[in-house]
Amino acid sequence: MSSDIFLSFLDFMTFTELQKILEKKFGATRLADIAKELDVTPQVVSNWKARNQVPYKYLKALRAKIEDIDKSSKVLYGNQDGFANTEPKTSIDDSFSEIQSIIGNISYFLKSFLQYKSIILSITFICSFTSYIFFQYYADPVYSAISKILPISSGGNNANGNPLAAVAKNFGIMGGAQASGLSSALMFPEIIKSRRLSRYLIEHEFSTEKYGDRLPLINILLGSKNDSAKWSDDQIKYAIFKAQKMITVSQEKKSPLLVLSVSTFEKQLSADISDAIIEILSKMANKFKLSQVKEKKAYINNRMIQVKSDLGGSEENLKVFRERNRKIIKSPTLLLEQERLMREVQVQTQMYITLKTQYEMAQIEEVDRQNMLQILDPPEAPTMQDSPDVILNTVIAALLGLSFSLGSIHFKIWYEDNSHKIKSNQIMS
User: Are the C-beta atoms of residues 374 and 258 closer than 8 Å to each other?
Assistant: First the structure.
C-alpha cells in the first residue's frame, strides 16, 4: 500500500487502523512503541484503544510525519514510478485539504459525542422535565383581565366647565387651565396609575381561593390573613407599589379609548380588581366634578351679589338724575349723561342675566349624576393564564441542558487528550 493511500485514511481513523499503519510504516506494534512515535504516554494510547478512536490532531501529526518521510525518500531514491514530482500544489489542493481537516474534526467530535449520548440525553431530559414540573405545578400563574373604557367629556374647554380637566387638575398632572375634552381624557392613564387611586384600591376587600375570606387587597399583596393588622408606612408604600405594578393601562392611537389590564395570580381576582378600579375611578371623577361645580356656583353667586348691588346703584343714579333733570331735551350735555347712565344700567343688567344663567346651569350640572366613564368591554375572568409559558420554558430548559452537556463532554475529551501529554512533557523536561 503506497503512502498516498495511507494518507487518505488519516482524516478519520479507528485505533485498529492506526496500529496497522504504524506497523507498516514504522514497525511499531506495542503500545509503548506507538506512544513513542506519536509523542504521548502509553496511558493515552490505552485510552484510544479502549475507545477504538484516535483524536484528529494526532492523526494530523502522523500524516505530516509520513509526508516528511515520503519526501525524504523521493529526494534520496527518486520517484518510484520514474517521474519527478515537480508540480506544485494548487490552491484547489489546499482548499481540499482544509475541507478534509474540518470534516475530520467534525467527525471526531460527533463520534465522541455519540459515545456519551446517554449522558447528553439524560441531562437534557432532566433539565426539561424539571422545568416542566416547576412551571406547571409550582410557579405562580399570572392571569390578566382586560377591559375597555371610554372617558366621557362634558362641559367647556376650561377646568371649571370640563369635569375631566377638573379631575386632572386635582391630581396635579395638568399644567394649565385650558384643555380640550380629548386632551383631558388622555390624563386618565396617569390617574389610574396614581398613588391616590392605588391607596383607595388596597383598602378594598376581595375574595380569593388562596386566602378564602374577604380581605383588603393590602393583606393579599403582603400575604397576611390578619385583616386587623396595623401596617407601617413602608408596608403601605410597598403595597401601593405592587398594586401599581399589576395595573397596565394604554390608549389606542387617535382615540380616547383606554385599555385596562390587571394581572394577578387568580382569574376571578383579576376581574374583581379591574371592576374595583373602574368603580373607584368613577367615584373619584364624580367627586371632583361635584367639588368643581360647587366652587363654580360659589364664585357665580358672589359675582351675582356684587353685580346686583352695582345694578341697584346704577338704577338709583339714573332715577335721581331723571328726577333732577326733567327737561333735558334742549341740553346736549344732560342727554349724554343720561345715555351714559342708561348704558351702565344695561351693562349691569346683562351681566346679571349672564351670571344668573350660568348659576342655573351649574345647579343642573350639580344634580347631573351621569357617569364620566363608559364601559365598552367590562372585565371578565380570563380563561387561560398569560404566564409562565410552560411549553416555551420547557424548550428553553432543554436547549440549555443540551448545550451544557455538549460543553461538558467537549471539555472532558479535551482534558483527557491533553493532560497526559502535559505530564509526559513535564517529566521529559
Answer: no
